[in-house]
């Protein structure tokens, strides 16, 4: 459990979500002194600390109560929940709100020169991905017998490198797939960033602060519509 009365929020330190997370916290009225190298930033106007970590660590930090809130892509959240559930660990988290940034799709893709393929083609093939649990769940439901190859980066070069026949990777515009000579197939998950909360959070002061921030979040979202 987090050790003091300051609300702890985990966000991505550097990457696709960090700028939007920082902008959102600012719009919520949380003043921060964000120095690049610091892991923790203390708010100067509210009892809030912001932890800046790798996005992959955010679901676990919130599930374990190390942080009270977190902002993370649904793709990372769903994968972490499946992974933890498999290992018998607590995988519960309360989703407070979907956010209007970080949109991407987790989609299948294969070398363009093979042309369009049906689901059946994947039987017996190797598929490289950073999201093995989400992919395995999809394959199970689609009744496809394929081998899942786990890669934590450079998934899009796996077919060319001979590591896999196809990939299952995050796509937003499709430009990366095209640049790597890959054709996009089924989307297996659509994702946005979301705000999550530890399910056991009981500190009245922290809950009151969250209740003060949530209407502001709603206001920020409505102002953008
Ligand atoms: P970290 O160093 O924190 O582990 P990362 O390299 O895993 O960072 P990023 O590439 O910064 O992660 O992506 C963070 C999140 O941004 C993704 O998990 C996803 O939710 C979202 N996202 C939006 N568009 C894309 C995209 N085109 N490719 C990958 N992720 C995207
Ligand atoms: Zn990551």
From TrEMBL:
Its EC number is 2.4.2.17. It is found in: Cytoplasm. The keyword Nucleotide-binding applies. Its cofactor is Mg(2+). Pathway: Amino-acid biosynthesis; L-histidine biosynthesis; L-histidine from 5-phospho-alpha-D-ribose 1-diphosphate: step 1/9. Feedback inhibited by histidine. Catalyzes the condensation of ATP and 5-phosphoribose 1-diphosphate to form N'-(5'-phosphoribosyl)-ATP (PR-ATP). Has a crucial role in the pathway because the rate of histidine biosynthesis seems to be controlled primarily by regulation of HisG enzymatic activity. Belongs to the ATP phosphoribosyltransferase family. Long subfamily. This is ATP phosphoribosyltransferase. It comes from Pseudoalteromonas fenneropenaei. The gene is hisG.
């Amino acid at each position: 459990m987090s050790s003091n009365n300051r609300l702890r929020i985990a966000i991505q330190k550097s990457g696709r979500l960090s700028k939007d997370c920082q902008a959102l916290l600012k719009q919520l009225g949380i003043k921060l002194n964000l120095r690049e190298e610091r892991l923790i930033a203390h708010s100067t106007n509210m009892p809030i600390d912001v932890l800046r970590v790798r996005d992959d660590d955010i679901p676990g930090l919130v599930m374990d109560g190390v942080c009270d809130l977190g902002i993370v892509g649904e793709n990372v959240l769903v994968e972490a929940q499946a992974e933890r559930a498999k290992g018998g660990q607590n995988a519960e988290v309360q989703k407070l709100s979907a956010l209007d940034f970080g949109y991407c799709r987790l989609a299948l893709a294969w070398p363009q020169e093979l042309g369009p393929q049906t689901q059946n083609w994947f039987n017996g093939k190797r598929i490289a991905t950073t999201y093995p649990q989400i992919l395995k769940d999809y394959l199970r439901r689609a009744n496809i017998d394929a081998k899942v190859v786990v890669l934590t980066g450079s998934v899009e070069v796996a077919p060319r490198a001979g590591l896999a026949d196809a990939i299952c990777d995050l796509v937003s515009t499709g430009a990366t797939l095209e640049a790597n000579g890959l054709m996009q197939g089924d989307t297996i998950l659509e994702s946005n960033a979301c705000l999550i909360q530890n399910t056991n959070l009981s500190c009245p002061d922290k809950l009151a602060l969250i209740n003060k921030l949530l209407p502001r979040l709603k206001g920020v979202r409505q102002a953008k519509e």
